[in-house]
Amino acid sequence: MSGILDKYDESINSTYNYTYRMLMNLKNIKEKYINLNKVDEITLEVYRDSIIKKYETLEELTWKLLSKIFKADGLDINSPRGCYKQAFKEGLIEDMIVWNNILLARNSTAHIYDETDYEAIKNDILNKYMDAIESLLKKISTERL
């Protein structure tokens, strides 16, 4: 009889351990879910500011690359707007309005004090400007280098 009771106890312990592990997994999942939904506002602000800062650098490097390309062609263009106009004339840039907005956004980032404006610029960077810059870089890579 004790063999049956031992197996019964072992079965109960095994079921208990399994249930305990499942409950702990469920608890961990719930904690991760709650933490994911409570994204820290500071983290979001740092992320946004980081995107804007990297964008400022990217825009600066982009127009300076264009300036060097045009200089190799004998054109001395030393301003972002001038470089974008020339790139448009040469077909490297498709939509001059987008590139004017890229430059305006870059110039305005140092003078924005409203969180809503920061968010709008971040969204424009991610949803509009990155595609335009990527398109330009592909054209430069295939046509100019």
Short key terms for the protein model shown above:
HepT; 0% strand; transferase; Four Helix Bundle (Hemerythrin (Met), subunit A); transferase activity; Putative nucleotidyltransferase substrate binding protein; single chain; mainly alpha
What does this structure look like?
This protein is mainly alpha-helical and 145 residues long. 83% of the residues lie in helices and 0% in strands. The chain has 2 domains: 1-38; 39-144, Up-down Bundle (Four Helix Bundle (Hemerythrin (Met), subunit A)). The protein has helices at residues 2-37, 41-72, 80-89, 96-108, 115-144. α2 runs parallel beside α5 (115-144), α3 runs antiparallel to α4 (96-108) and α4 packs across α5. The longest helix has 36 residues, at 2-37. The N and C termini lie far apart (86 Å). The model has no long low-confidence stretch (mean pLDDT 86).
